[in-house]
Design goal:
mainly beta, disordered N terminus, 28 strands, 2% helix
């Protein structure tokens, strides 16, 4: 028998897409969600159209998204399996998979998550519980999970209409014991406890919740929600969400929704060098990270497309001074100065998708201890790192960056070389499983042969040759845990491939002297 079903409108309009130029996800059309006003179209049985789910931050709309969603075998929504639920994860042990699930106390015997148990005999015209004279008498109040008054509650084997059942797939926002969220399938109902229903679970995948639906959107990460752990002595943190926050002696206003970290560090110098050669690095980096999520259910079942990317606007300014000797035979000197962590919840229709974001900001210097420099650069741009999946092609990496630097000051003397990076190591995952790792490293590089000096006021002199460059390196990998979408990962690690872009800031050769007015002598 064919039945038509209607999918209820979601809570609010979708968040406007803020994708970095050139980044796209397979099978997704961000303009489509905006066009239908953030509502799911009605879908009749036999219709080929897949339900479109809005993607938004969990604090959008009318006070927040669902804390959990449950997919039960034989879900009632065509093309989408999950429904919003009021069930909560009271505790979760990721190692053993043991969890305790609770339901509101007003439900003595719920038959499905998120819906109080009712029957025609126990509900008045308004749907509120009323006394039922014809109901069977009971010598004790019913506290068991069964809808059958004659059923006997059991702590070891709950009745069929318990809060949760074997086969249920639960997606939960961060919960006690699971600060990175929960995505799990119930494999055994252990029994009732004073805290709720205790169950055994195994890891699940998103296709069990989203089915044949499609979803696409980008959600900015609230800078105030990021936990920042300074790991260097001279680190200062500030952020702005609503504007009006000023920083620095000139009162520069921080861009809306950005996190700023200021850092200063002393660097190793050659042994026996003069005090005037002491080296240091100071500056700041401002970040406005965004998470892009895309899912497309396959027409014949399974997953047709998916993507997970981290993108963001980046601006920084840093200065390198002195004669640094900051390299080893194996690798450059890396000085981490702050760790950042956030678990933003992206509401995908009824499903809370928990994104785990970690960033380690660092200063890296590779210098031979010969060149004496005083360089300062402004850098602005954006980046995108992540992966996309298409059924016919599998997973493919995404690594893009559009950045440009301008010199504030550039002076150099004595033959040698130096390269300084102010970068970030990033990892992005879902429900505690890391799926993407990336290293975004803008840098400043100088090479000097002979002696040379230059300044941003236009004056310069050189004997020999010198050059200063700005650039960015992006590297990383896709991890096997991206199969959390329900897609296969055949390789345990798929490299992003090294992306390098470089631009010349200043340079010269020969013996030349130039005045600020541009006259040469």
């Amino acid at each position: 028998m064919r039945r038509s079903s209607r999918i209820a409108p979601l809570l609010a309009l979708t968040t406007a897409s803020l994708l970095v130029a050139g980044c796209s996800s397979p099978g997704s059309d961000p303009s489509a969600d905006a066009a239908d006003g953030g509502k799911e179209p009605a879908a009749a049985a036999g219709s080929a159209a897949a339900p479109k789910l809005t993607v938004k931050g969990s604090d959008d709309g009318d006070g927040g998204g669902a804390q959990s969603a449950v997919a039960r075998p034989g879900g009632s929504h065509p093309g989408r399996l999950a429904e919003k639920s009021a069930l909560k994860v009271a505790s979760f042990d990721r190692n053993s998979g043991r969890a305790v699930i609770t339901a509101p106390a007003m439900w003595p015997s719920p038959s499905r998550p998120g819906v109080p148990s009712k029957s025609p005999e126990s509900s008045g015209p308004s749907g509120s519980p009323t006394a039922t004279p014809s109901a069977p008498a009971s010598t004790a109040p019913s506290t068991g999970p069964s809808d059958n008054p004659s059923a006997t509650p059991s702590k070891s084997a709950p009745a069929p209409h318990a809060d949760v059942a074997v086969g249920d797939v639960i997606a939960s926002a961060p919960a006690p014991g699971a600060p990175q969220g929960v995505l799990a399938k119930v494999t055994k109902v252990v029994g009732k406890t004073d805290r709720g229903t205790e169950v055994n679970t195994t890891p699940a995948t998103l296709d069990a919740l989203l089915g044949g639906s499609t979803a696409h959107g980008t959600v900015p990460v609230d800078p105030s929600a990021m936990k920042v752990e300074p790991i260097a002595p001279k680190v200062k943190v500030s952020w702005a969400k609503t504007g009006g926050l000023h920083f620095g002696p000139k009162g520069a206003t921080l861009p809306l929704g950005r996190l700023r970290l200021d850092v200063g560090a002393s660097l190793p110098t050659p042994a026996g060098g003069p005090v005037s050669a002491e080296a240091s690095a100071t500056g700041y980096v401002q970040l406005a990270p965004k998470v892009d999520f895309s899912y497309e259910g396959g027409k014949g079942g399974g997953v047709g497309g998916a993507s997970l990317t981290l993108s963001g606007d980046w601006s920084s300014q840093w200065e390198l001074k002195g004669r640094a000797a900051a390299s080893t035979e194996a690798k450059p000197l890396r000085l981490p100065f702050a760790k950042l962590h956030a678990d933003p919840v992206i509401q995908v229709g009824p499903v809370p998708v928990v994104v785990n974001l970690d960033l380690t900001c660092y200063l890296q210097v590779d210098a031979d201890g010969k060149a004496s420099v005083d360089v300062k650069q402004d850098l602005k741009g954006d980046f995108t790192v992540g992966g996309s999946y298409q059924l016919a092609k599998g997973w493919a990496p995404i690594a893009k960056a559009k950045m440009h630097g301008t010199p504030v000051r550039a002076t150099a003397a004595a033959a040698g070389k130096v390269k300084a990076s102010l970068g970030a190591e990033a990892s992005v995952g879902l429900y505690g499983a890391v799926g993407v790792t990336a290293d975004v490293a803008p840098y400043l590089r100088a090479e000097v042969a002979g002696t040379a000096s230059a300044d941003s006021n236009g004056s310069a002199s050189a004997t020999g040759s010198w050059a200063a460059y700005g650039g960015i390196d992006v590297s990383g990998a896709l991890r096997a845990h991206l199969d959390i979408f329900g897609t296969p990962i055949f390789d345990r690690r798929i490299p992003l491939g090294t992306l390098n872009r470089e631009w010349k800031l200043a340079g010269g050769k020969g013996t030349v002297s130039r005045t600020p007015a541009g006259k040469q002598h």
